[in-house]
Amino acid sequence: MNICDAIKSIDMKHPYITRQSWNDGILHDHPMMFKIQPSNSPDCCIMYGVGKPGPRWNPTKEDLMADDWVLVKP
């Protein structure tokens, strides 16, 4: 799904989003999934992955146009 539909679909069971290509592509061998928690807080969209959470995820044009966004459980 596109990023807008993914964000609209977020619920308590699935509060994060990720791109399927992040998990199928270069990160395939990495045990930790990258996921994003959209928010209206001063931290903006928080990215979780390797290490501690990082505030203010900066999407690429490809990320914004992608249609492989999926919901993720905590």
Helix content: 10-25%
N-C termini distance: 19 Å
The proportion of strand residues reads: 15-25%
Outline the biggest β-sheet: 2 strands, antiparallel
Number of DSSP strands?
4
Secondary-structure-derived class: alpha+beta
Q: Could you give the order of the helices and strands?
A: HEHEEHE
Mean pLDDT: 86
Q: Spans with pLDDT under 50 lasting ≥5 residues?
A: none
Annotation field: number of helices: 3
Describe this structure in words.
- The protein has 74 residues and is an alpha+beta fold.
- It has one domain.
- 23% of the residues lie in helices and 19% in strands.
- The protein contains three helices and four strands; from the N terminus they run αβαββαβ.
- It has helices at 3-9, 20-24, 61-65; strands spanning 16-19, 35-37, 46-48, 69-72.
- β2 (35-37) and β3 (46-48) form a beta hairpin.
- The longest helix is centred in the N-terminal third of the chain and has 7 residues, at 3-9.
Secondary structure elements and pairings:
Elements: H1 3-9, E1 16-19, H2 20-24, E2 35-37, E3 46-48, H3 61-65, E4 69-72
Antiparallel strand pairs: 1-4, 2-3
Please outline what is shown here:
By secondary structure, this protein is of the alpha+beta class. 23% of the residues lie in helices and 19% in strands. The protein is built from three helices and four strands.
